[in-house]
Amino acid sequence: MLRPGAKRFYKVAEARAREDGFGIELDGRAVRTPAGAPLTLPGAGLAEAIAAEWAAQEGELMPAAMPMMQLACTAIDRVIPNRADVVEQTAAYGGSDLLCYRAEGPDELIRLQAESWQPVLDWAAEALSAPLVPTRGIMHVAQPGESLVSLMSAVAALDDWRLTGVAHLTQVFGSLVLALAVERGRLEHEEAFAASVLDEVYQAERWGEDREALLGRKAHADEARFAAAFLSMV
Known about the structure:
The chain is mainly alpha-helical. It has two domains: 13-79, ATP12-like, CATH 3.30.2180.10; 83-233, ATP12 ATPase (ATP12-like fold, Orthogonal Bundle), CATH 1.10.3580. 56% of the residues lie in helices and 8% in strands. The protein has ten helices and five strands. The strands form two sheets. Strands 1-2-3 form a three-stranded antiparallel β-sheet. A two-stranded parallel sheet has the order 4-5. Strand 1 (13-18) and strand 2 (21-26) form a beta hairpin. It is globular and about 60 Å long.
């Protein structure tokens, strides 16, 4: 249903309640995922949001303009059939979490990282029973085994839909801790994203902004916003 370049072929897009959840209908025909599975959604809010994405399409269908639909299809086609792998891959970020790798200089950047990142690590130690060890530089530092087990448990406890959102946020941030902080309400997605690009923004403010980097950062900020909205709907 999300073939780039396909023309809009329907007049009305509507969310519909079903016995097993909610679906989307285009002129009365049920929408399926790209893999052909029924698009069965867990909540009315998400269904209404996806119906609105379909309704807003004009002329050619633009998958990039349908982030909720894409995340829902990811949940159904990729996460649910491969749940164990997704849990393992997402939890693995805890072993090399962005927040643990601090700059060696200058002093101002060291201070900014400590002020932004350390409170989130402190939260993880308390709320997730997962204290992590920060270091300076890029050399890998081994994290406590008990902490990695706790992070794995936190990820494994997510249902399939929340796992989809957290997995996406983890990739955007490069940090499992930031993703879980958003999922659990410790941080707003804007705060978490700002923390994830702190180094990049610091360098841009001092040496000048690269247009391509700026556009990439904006795209990642949008991805974080959409994934956080997805979490709020499931």
